[in-house]
Amino acid sequence: MSNKAVKVLLIEDNPADTRLIREILAEAKGSPFKLECADRLATGLTCLARGRIDVVLLDLGLPDSQELSTLVKVQAEASTVPVVVLTGLDDEELTIRAVQLGAQDYLVKGQVDSNLLRRSINYAIERKHLERRVVEYEELNKLKSNLLSTVSHELRTPLTTIKGYSTMLLDYDTRLKHDEKQEYLSAIDRATDRMVELVDHLLDMSRLDAGLLKLDKVPTDITALLQTTIAEASLRTPGHKIVLNLSKAVLRLNGDGRRIRQVVDNLIENAIKYSQVGSTVTIEARSQDSELVISVADQGKGIPWENLGKVFDRMFNLEHRLAQEPGGLGLGLALCKALVEAHGGRIWVESKLGKGSVFRFALPQEAITEGEAYGEKGQ
Amino acid sequence: MVKKGSRATVLIIEDEVNIRTFASRVLELEDYHVLQASDGDEGLRLVRGNQVALVLLDLRLPGRDGWVVLSQMKSDPELSSIPVVVFTASAAAQQRSQALAGGAADYLVKPLSATSLRKSIARILR
Question: What angle do CA A106, A109, A115 make, to 5 degrees?
């Protein structure tokens, strides 16, 4: 907040009060303020909808809205923007209720000077910021306890397979045929892999949360990385056709090959999980505007548009998966997002219901010094 | 081993294929006749159309939940006498007493060994 102009939106219908606030703000030393004015609530809400307002100075009695409903409407439009209520001498009780409703502060008109206004604005912004942090921590806390119960449930499914089949093999050994035993042993093997994967995802997520996940960035041959990843994915899931399209022979960037591979693996696994056997998963990679863009497209059922913005969200995936189907903590995409962002990149999804989804991520291609060894660290 | 005389039919309602396979194979090896359903609707259909001696019911099912299947069976005079053994991932005491109060004959917690499954069924169908 130090060097940036603080954008103040004043919603006030009395021209004299508006003029006064404008003059007082112009006097303020220190943080420079940039003032926008609206003389009715509707105009103010339009300004807020455009965004980038740091604080609202609000007169509760406007031509098109009165009393506390004015505040409620402002908060409904921009719940994250702090509001300082401007009030006359005679309606202090109303103002106190406004503060209880979430206004950060109130100022009595006619008693406002430059110092007071500046302090009120800065504290309002600071307090709102802290308020938001508290809400975020509460959400994180809720998420963590949800995660815990999901984890214990998700671990129990492979555990039940392992316990069931292994005790069956012990109890009925002589009565089971060789092929049948092999079948149960491989189910135990797969259940163990599933548990390892769950535990790995959890560990990565908690490392990321704690800021402990370090990237090992080296010049990496993305072409070779994609080829290996896809060859192995094809072996694991022979039911799907996995195709690689490259814009040119060799694509390189500075990055952590193991982590980039993890992202691609996750996206391919996701594509396979949500599309039918026999369909095609297409992976493309190209260089574009000093970014390397990798996409994974499936021919699955697609994602409803109202969920498109949420698929990378941990909470959403947890609740969604729990209701829909077992077999995942739903951390995969959240982990992809975190890993891509740790590389300074971005990830997004496009989807058409019934046609399929395309997950894309872009990683910055920093200049790679000549003579450095290219290594595929995808193993 | 417990002697069964004529083969009793056990219906397993469980969505997870490995757990369903495990339970049905153990019960087959114990000489029961086994029917399988992967969701509640299919389970209710099978229990109505067959002479089922016991139902092994997962409480957490897609679509019609195991709890709903249990209460529908217990409130249907034709089905209410069939013992229902529920099994679930939750060891919570509250859930256990809720299931037993709802008419379940036994409450098994996953993970489950072949022995505990066998013993529970044998005790009820003795």
Answer: 70
